[in-house]
Amino acid sequence: MTSISFPNALRERQLAVVDVEGNGQNPPEIIEIAVLLVDGPMTPDALRSWLIRPQQPVSSIVTRKVHGITNADLADCPPWAEVAQEIEEALCGRVLVAHNATVERRVLAAHLPDWNPPLVLDTLRLAKTVWAGLGSYALDKLIERGELDTNSIAGQGYHRAGYDNLGGVAVAVRADHRW
């Protein structure tokens, strides 16, 4: 990822662009989270990602149809309790930027009950304003439309947290004239 500047209205804010992937159970457990910390221009080292071993197995349908993450992929990963504090510290005091942010916030709040973002920016809603009439608002289409370089997340495909995270970035960066 090359250095990218966010819109003027957000440049003074600390942002956390977040995407989570779940195990397909009810309630969902986070099995992957990517957090892009934005304190000015974005750089490749600003993206943090964790794989997390859930208490309940990843459902085969979610593995097959959504993110491709298997129980074997997570077998040696830390459980949520071992990474929760580090993730909460990364998010603390930052504006939550997420695609379909209501869902992301609800899942995160269930895992981090003391966390409350000062502001939530939903890139799905924003995308529908910025790129009205776009055939699809899927994150891979937004990355393509935003012409973002995905080389820094090579090996992560659509619906992996790091890759999907860039869809939100594409919308926010291209929305500069809307702020």
List the helices and strands and how they pair.
Layout: E1 15-22, E2 30-38, E3 47-51, H1 60-67, H2 71-74, H3 80-91, E4 95-98, H4 101-111, E5 120-122, H5 123-130, H6 139-146, H7 161-174
Parallel strand pairs: 1-4, 4-5
Antiparallel strand pairs: 1-2, 2-3
Helix pairs in contact: 5-7, 6-7
Please describe the structure with a list of short key phrases separated by commas or semicolons.
single chain, 179 residues, alpha/beta, Nucleotidyltransferase, domain 5, 5-stranded mixed beta sheet, 7 helices, 5 strands, 36% helix
Q: What would your notes on this structure say?
A:
Residues 14-179 form the Exonuclease domain. Keywords: Exonuclease, Hydrolase, Nuclease. Its EC number is 3.1.11.-. GO terms for molecular function: 3'-5' exonuclease activity; nucleic acid binding. This protein has a domain at 8-122: Nucleotidyltransferase, domain 5 (2-Layer Sandwich). The protein has helices spanning 60-67, 71-74, 80-91, 101-111, 123-130, 139-146, 161-174; strands at 15-22, 30-38, 47-51, 95-98, 120-122. It has a five-stranded mixed sheet with strand order 3-2-1-4-5, sandwiched between helices. The chain has 179 residues and is an alpha/beta fold. The relative contact order is 0.20. The radius of gyration is 16 Å and the shape is globular. Helix content is 36%, strand content 16%. It contains seven helices and five strands, in the order βββαααβαβααα.
